């Protein structure tokens, strides 16, 4: 028998693999088995205290986050909801399962503008109970909204949750922006919201945007946040990867191809975009992923958990 390669995978370190129950009310046991965070901690060599951070993205096989068509600027088409509603419902529950395991959900103001009716909170009552009784967390995670410019739609439903359901309406909101963005926020309108946010300026002098290092340290020290679910788009994910802030990538691959241009000639948003011809990595410096777990839903959705190994 020939020598075993040093890269060979043994049974003990092989990723867990299994099909998910094809049911919109995916059992809690399967959710906990796949998305558990008991062993998830930030690297010891992180230069500043911060939570464990994962990004959670639904993408086409060629990496696009949205078809960016009229009436479909969110994940509607990528989730294949019009054609496979049951499949889309499984993905929806998995999205909320990730949120249920987090202490904070990080999004951008552009997501609120693009999805004016989105409810960015855990909507499943059994997941809320699981958070409280099993994970020992409050009913809802904190919602962190990034905006460089301060352009926040104060009328968005995240600021006006249902008052008659306490486990759905009581969650802190933190709007994080720049000094210039703080001055441009619709502060009066936000103050009148049913769930008004705390607003904070954390400038990064190098990029002119928000300092992610300062943000994550603030969440760790002042908000008790230990796990962050990043639901932002490709630009933010790219910045977090370059800054070595993403510890884990959670990706749902939808078995379809989109192409990069919409029917109106607009560029579709990509999971890891290139901006202004900026060079990022070579084969020697690109981050490598170690697959932690794989799940399938039917024959058209593939759920991945991957640990990020930085080399730059």
Number of strands: 10
Strand order of the largest sheet: 1-9-10-8-2-7-3-4-5-6
Secondary-structure element string: EHEHEHHEHEHHEHEHEEE
Q: How big is the Rg?
A: 20 Å
* Distance linking N and C termini: 37 Å
Helix content: 10-25%
Put simply, the count of helices is 9
The residue ranges in which pLDDT falls below 50 over 5 or more consecutive positions are 1-5
Describe this structure in words.
The chain has 312 residues and is α/β, with parallel strands linked by helices. The protein has helices at residues 28-35, 85-100, 109-114, 125-133, 166-169, 179-184, 187-191, 212-223, 234-242; strands at residues 16-19, 52-60, 104-108, 142-147, 173-177, 198-201, 227-230, 248-254, 288-297, 301-309. Mean pLDDT is 92; it is low at 1-5.
Q: Nutshell version of this structure?
A:
With 312 residues, the chain is an alpha/beta fold.
Topology:
Layout: E1 16-19, H1 28-35, E2 52-60, H2 85-100, E3 104-108, H3 109-114, H4 125-133, E4 142-147, H5 166-169, E5 173-177, H6 179-184, H7 187-191, E6 198-201, H8 212-223, E7 227-230, H9 234-242, E8 248-254, E9 288-297, E10 301-309
Parallel strand pairs: 1-9, 2-7, 2-8, 3-4, 3-7, 4-5, 5-6
Antiparallel strand pairs: 8-10, 9-10
Which terms summarize this structure?
20% strand; single chain; 10-stranded mixed beta sheet; 312 residues; disordered N terminus
